[in-house]
Amino acid sequence: MEFSILENVEKDENAVPKDERKTIPRLTKFERARVIGLRAVQLSKNAPTNIDVGDLIDPMKISELELQKGMIPLIIRRFLPSKKYEDWTIYELVNYI
Fold first, then answer.
1. pTM
2. Is 3.90.940.10 the CATH number for 2-7+25-94?
């Protein structure tokens, strides 16, 4: 399974509707690493934070905190073998019960 991380989302006929998704609603270790790394790069380029960071200045630690709280404004697009894809928000993957 291949995935990409999106900031702006446009859907087409290959998008799987939310109620018909087949992949597990959990963040894989590979997705987690990529999300934290991408968000750390954004923060190091002065992107605004989505949480109160107090006196933290390390972008990696800030992005890990944002991920724990599900506050990273990214969408993970998981591509399926059938050429279709599923879009998942970070909040859906981190806070799934």
1. 0.82
2. yes
